[in-house]
Amino acid sequence: MSKEKLIIFDTTLRDGEQSPGAAMTAEEKLRIAKALEKMKVDIIEAGFPISSEGDFAAVQGIARTVKDSVVCGLARANKADIERAGEALKDANASRIHTFIATSPLHMREKLLLTPDQVFEQAVDAVKLARNFTDNVEFSPEDAGRSDLDFLCRIIEAVIDAGATTINIPDTVGYNLPDQYGNTIRQLIENVPNSDKAIFSTHCHNDLGLAVANSLAGVMNGARQVECSINGLGERAGNAALEEVVMAVRTRQDLFPCDVGLDTTQIMTCSRLVSGITGFPVQPNKAIVGANAFAHESGIHQDGVLKSRETYEIMLAEDVGLNSNKLVLGKLSGRSAFKDRLEKLNIMVDSQEELNNAFRRFKDLADKKSEIFDEDIQALVSDFKMEE
Ligand code: KIV
Ligand code: ZN
């Protein structure tokens, strides 16, 4: 039986761009959008058209170019924002308007200066207006992670009746824990009478380092869209990292009731593109896309991987677009990785004794140098052969 689809909604170009210092030009955003389209991302949130002329042009350019992904624009729940988003998206092959308003008591009272009833009315009006531009409308109750569940149920029921087809549940400040966030998704789906008329979506921020865990808990509890970004880029500590969500779902298909339709071999290209454009480096030990994510250094691990990759690899480097895994030669490496590297470099050793000598020299060098490169090995063996 084929599984349900998990929709991947990428917000690198919108929430990702809200990372301080990550502003992108329209041309840079278009390059990233094309890479996301090639990776078969379902929905690309291209920007916030009313925020600036430049962002309007960026969203419009992406809407005119991208054909295989739905192009989405963000709008607050008001007429000007929604009309501007509608205008930016009008030439898209497939478009979505994503409209939002805060629903937590704190945000309504301190930021919006609106009563819950006023927020309710504004949300419904916004969704109705957005439906004049596209039949694909997403509604987000901002700060849902700190909102009252009964109020969320009430507003969500009404916006679905007004025409929202996706209900996104933002943990805007990354406050929730996985069980709590998963429960919220489940209770909303169970208690909103018309919940079957919409797809429920996760949008988790990483303030406590839980964005991916919370998103996956949401999926386990019925969400069928995840909002995420390349390298986890996003406001403050960022959003759920797309590559981590996607590879978790792929790698643990034994647990997930749904699957993603992405071409995961494009992950590394997208990660490097976004890092290069924004100037935000990827930490070496970052899951999936860090330089060390598929590298083995200790002798015990290298020996295991050479015998069977599954001993220390739960997914293949090739699946995320790398040519292969990496056995890094250093002071912790063992004889089997060293011998393997000699073979790959076509270096012949004539006897066990010669191998032992070469290995001893390699270990001496590794004590002085943190990583041993192929050139080091070539030099080390040729010196040794000359001395013979
Ligand atoms: O984090 C958030 O609440 C948002 C909304 C605009 C969806 O980014
Ligand atoms: Zn956000």
Structure description:
With 388 residues, the protein is of the alpha/beta class. It has helices at 26-38, 53-65, 79-88, 105-112, 116-130, 149-162, 178-191, 211-220, 242-251, 267-278, 299-307, 335-344, 352-366, 374-387, and strands spanning 4-5, 7-10, 43-47, 70-76, 95-102, 137-142, 166-171, 199-204, 225-228, 258-259, 295-296, 326-327. The model has no long low-confidence stretch (mean pLDDT 96). Helix 7 links the parallel strand 7 (166-171) and strand 8. It is built from 14 helices and twelve strands. The protein is elongated. Residues 15, 170, 172, 203, 205, 235 line the site of zinc ion. Zinc ion binds next to loops. This is 2-isopropylmalate synthase.
Which features characterize this protein?
amino-acid biosynthesis, two-stranded parallel sheet, manganese ion binding, elongated, 12 strands, binds 3-methyl-2-oxobutanoic acid, 388 residues, binds zinc ion, alpha/beta
Number of helical stretches of at least 4 residues? 14
Terminal CA distance: 65 Å
Order of helices and strands: EEHEHEHEHHEHEHEHEHEHEHEHHH
Major pleated sheet: 8 strands, parallel, barrel
Using only C-alpha atoms, the radius of gyration works out to: 25 Å
Binding site for Mn(2+): 15, 203, 205, 239
EC number: 2.3.3.13
Keywords: Acyltransferase, Amino-acid biosynthesis, Branched-chain amino acid biosynthesis, Cytoplasm, Leucine biosynthesis, Manganese, Metal-binding, Transferase
Subunit structure: Homodimer.
